[in-house]
Write a structure and sequence with these properties.
By secondary structure, this protein is an all-beta fold. About 0% of the residues lie in helices and about 55% in strands. It has no helices and eleven strands. Strands 2, 4, 5, 6, 9, 10 and 11 form a seven-stranded mixed β-sheet that branches. It has a four-stranded antiparallel β-sheet with strand order 1-3-8-7, with no helix packed on it.
Length: about 120
């Protein structure tokens, strides 16, 4: 079973930066992609970014394109999300998820809180 542990959340002022990490354990050879999602209070969970585990290709939500960067270190089995130019509307619990196919995210982390103050 794949386990994902997020870290790096916290409180930051608008315009600031924050980096998140997602440590992936077990069955990493089976992972097709890893993604970041977020859920703000009272809102549905939304996609933020994803990365192909082996090839490294990336895809972003329009709302974060140009501000967030997803990357991975296959040696450390860790996926990162660098968030720059943060806005109050980026406030949410951020989750990472691992998928074994092109269409699924099968395992999820416990989430880490990101709060952006205005």
């Amino acid at each position: 079973q794949v386990q994902l542990v997020e870290s790096g959340g916290g409180l930051v002022q608008a315009g600031g930066s924050l980096g998140l990490s997602c440590a992936v354990s077990e069955r990493t050879f089976s992972i097709y992609r890893v993604g970041w999602f977020r859920q703000a209070p009272g809102k549905r969970r939304e996609f933020v970014a994803r990365i192909h585990w082996s090839g490294g290709s990336t895809y972003y939500a329009e709302s974060v394109k140009g501000r967030f960067t997803i990357s991975r270190d296959n040696v450390k089995n860790t996926v990162y999300l660098q968030m720059n130019s943060l806005k109050p509307e980026d406030t949410a619990v951020y989750y990472c998820a691992a998928g074994f196919t092109i269409t699924t995210f099968d395992y999820w982390g416990q989430g880490t809180q990101v709060t952006v103050s205005s």
